[in-house]
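> tool_call: predict_assembly(chains=three)
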Amino acid sequence: MPHQDQDTSLRHRLGRTLRTPIGVTALTACLLVVLVAVFGPVLLGDQAARIDTDAINRGSSAAHLLGTDQLGRDIAARVVVATRLTLRLTLLAAVIGVGGGLLLGVAPAVVGRRLGRLITATVGVLVAFPGLLFLLFLATIFGVGSTGAVFAVGLAMVPPMARLVQNLTASIAGSDYVAAARILGVGRFKLVVRHLLPNIAEPSVLFATQAAGGILVAFSGLSFLGLGVQPPEYDWGRLLNEQLNRIYVNPVAALAPGAAVVLTGLMFGLVGEVLAQAGGRRAPQAREATPQQVKPQDETAPDGDGGALVRARDLRVTFPGGRRAVRGISLSIGVGEAVGLVGESGSGKSLTALALADLVPHPGRVCAGTLRFDGHDLRADPRLGTELAMVFQDPMASLNPALRVGRQLAEVAEVHLGATRAQATARAVDRLGAVRIPLPERRARQRPHEYSGGMRQRAVIAMGLMGEPKLIVADEPTTALDVAVQQQVLDLLAEVRADSGAALLLISHDLAVVAQVCERVLVMYGGLIVEDLPVAQLVGGAAHPYTRALVGAVPTMATDPGTELATIPGRPPEPGEAGAGCPFAPRCERARKRCHDDAPELAGFGPGQRVACWYPVDAETAVAPAQAASHGAEATS
Amino acid sequence: MSSLELRGITVRYGRFTAVDNVDLLVPEGTVTGLVGGSGSGKSTLGKAVVGLAPMQSGRVLVAGSDAGRRRGRSPVQLVFQNPYASLDPRMTIGASVAEALPREAASCETPARKAPARERRSACDAEVARYLELVGIDPARAVLAPDALSGGQRQRVALARALAARPAVLIADEITSALDVSVQGAVLNLLRRLQRELGFAMLFISHNLAVVRYLSDQVAVMDDGHLVECGPTERVLERPEHPTTRNLISCVPTLALAEEAS
Amino acid sequence: MATLTLNSPGTTARSPWAGFALRRTWRLVVSLAALVTAAFAMIHLIPGDPVRTALGTTADPALIAARRHSLGLDQPLLKQYGDFVGHLLHGRLGDSIGAQMPVSEIISSRLPATLQIAVPAFVLILLLAIPVGMTAAVLTKDGRRRRGELAFTGVTGFLGAVPEFLLAVGLIAAFAVAWPVFPVASRGGMDSYVLPVLALTVVPAATLSRIVRVETLRVLGEDYMRTARAKRLPARLRYLRHALPNLLTSSLTLGGLLFSSLLAGTVLVENVFAWPGLGTTIVQAITEKDYPLVQGVVLVYGAAALLITFAVDVAVAVADPQSTVRGS
């Protein structure tokens, strides 16, 4: 259980975050502000109120650090004493704002549909107005003074808070687990208490903290305008109001209350940041171990490519923290060959493909003993551009939504082939036609959202055909597509390969998809290639217990409904979890001691077949594949 | 145990008709597979049956009596596609399952009037443990949050929750499509075993014909909101009558090539 | 092809467009109506008699009655509302209690001063925030330059947390008192514009550049940027042609509220600089309880805010039709 030891309770995460530098700062700042608010008026109250007609409007001096005001009162003492009132009013307004916001935000989920819609619409109209305008409006109604200002500032906070809570509530009310609770007949009120509130609590508290900072500023602004706290009471805003016209004479007196507002505002921000980190919204910057430098086996004399288009030896992809996603694999793809790469999520198959195309996302590092493409070292000379085409999993996301499809194709020819804009556009239209997109001229002028999913995937393939690709890497190209469309895209890939003579590396979790298009299959598990076999050997001829189990685990149109499906106990290893032995050993019923201690190398098994297993399944002696696994085995792993 | 009968179900979203006048009978104690492409309306139909999609017209009959618009616990339970979204992240898995237990059996939520609270609590815990065990989850893990479980295990818990509500009918909506290949088989085996042991009627929704073929007694095919074909699994898959069915069958990628060669 | 869109390409986008225009205009109309009603209701929501409050308790009863009459407060509520809306449509906002002048005249004499600092600030915010945010994102993407990222978020976070009016005070203390290059307050030559515009610009620019950075990082992580990398496009093309249009639309959407609050921010900044704009007018009017004037200024500010958000939404819709279709 990788997650079990991971502490998920908020209290623990909060404790951990409070020990980070930002947590310590926030805690100290909070403590300081509270102490000043509690003891400030007690200790300095007299000094702040003492009128000294002999020392009116003095500048900064030893006796009066920030000088004195027009009645000779000590400004420094007044700034300290004002802390309590400022905080009290801020918190009062925050209570009104947060309470009202929560109430209005949750209400649509509790009251009837029509009333709920009315509330949502009202809040929608209210948030369109800037907060300060709302504030002035309310201040006019409530009149000048602290009570009115508390209500004005608090109520002005309600619409944005309500909007946030509404959005959170709506997203949770639409979730599957709330739907499940509804089917179970859980009442409306219980639904709110049990499912909605606990799930919106964290972001709401976070927002409220940040809002408190905003309220402090708003309140100070109101007092500064003379609409908030009235003399003889004073908060920081009022002090600023009184001192601003003396800024020429004594600038520190005006800056001090301002600084107090800014610093306290920052404190609220810090507290929010700490809560956000503790809530897991922002990961505390974990001190990551520097990536282990795995020295690849040095290749002193680069061997000939031997007719292979792609040759990789000891290819590794590592991530900071020692996570090794691809753990030293060797593969080759012949000219015009179609190779399938199969594995479960986390097996490293996609990263292998990205490594070949030099597209591994940033913290990941690729290293390899050999990495050659068409006779060139890929690392020294990444001259891919037009010779390698990539097709990604999600056609909805892999085209730029802001640009016309034709433009996205044409730029390949402009950048890499030196074509003029007109030539490039003509070629783009031609290529769109080649992947059987009807009306290619018109379609080229459209943006991706006007295309269906299957057509987008065709357009991506057409993009790869702008040059003359020698290799097409397709990473789960049909997973996001409908069954019927999947077939068309697979047919298209096969056709393109036949026409252009390009090699194909097809990555998929679905054995059947790979079997349809490819000649050879590489099976990956735990960052290693465990078997390399001709497609024809997949059924019946697989030598690795994992391959055999994979073939048996998914029902096909030929599976006997009377038999149980093969199951593999346990779950695939997380990247970086693998130990010294064979990565499949913990789940393998054939595993013996040697399997747990030593990792087997990929070695020849039969004609065109290689397997990384100490005890491969012999085709003749094989009984039914991994049948014995028990039902509950997966759960008890 | 009882049958599920759908009569003239129509679901509209604005002007868009997602499900159009569908009649379907899932006989007692059997499994009906519902297949179709994306956007065919198969998932919407499943949601409409449990009241999660706005039903314009039509009736849902469970064991011959109207069940569609009744308030409270539905006699039809649904297992969702995505096990990462269908469990409340703030609840332990035990609490999630307990929430489903019928009130009269052992209720954790309302304190008992007659029986002492502790007794009822332990009765409830025992029930939760029973259902967790049924789906192959160690009852000792009832105190864990869903975070601590893998996808396959979560799907088992979701299944336990649905079963704990003692449903007359179970709807499984693409329950294996979010799972890893090596875990799918185990969940399918479990579902098949439980269905046979407990004998509930089941509507199994999937885009994967092979999986449907493996589990179902009867197959229904949807296209564009309409039910276009329905019949015994063997007949539909071997002698499909509707072009949609034929197209779906022809599009199933198979290991056939590999099989022929071997 | 099974999922091919059968309608001809031209018509597919048409209907969502009309739907969007209708929805958005309807929302504007409703919001404007709400604004007008709120402005009308304000005077009635004030506890007690607004005229008596305004003129003081010692005022002559006859004068109060006359003023009530001239404000129309002796009429039935519905008739008052009708008159209010009717006058509004003719551009009449009533007379100020304090200045004994038509409110519309006061507003039209004060509004230009406000716009003269708000518009340059608006332009400056855009010119600063987008390049700065984007550059910061490109330099710190994928967790590169951790320290630079920390510095950027620290500085912009701090600047974003400083309220405009305090920044204005700070600017005065620094550039008018300690190092007197610019005048302290009031409108005069070109140099008197520098500090107010700066005070209005810095805070929203810092906030917006943070938004732009986050949006840029999001866009850089999108699949289509990976496609662009797979095409081996030079960095210039990838950032300017592929990333910029996508992050502009989303940043503008998020920044839309920022722009409307900029207008409100002028209120405080004007008061710091004693700027003869609408902001000083409304504060004065509130303290003097000159309700018709407050009403008028609230209407102007509110309508301006609504129109700005409307304009931003329309601009985003034109630039990125997909989001319009998506966000029903």
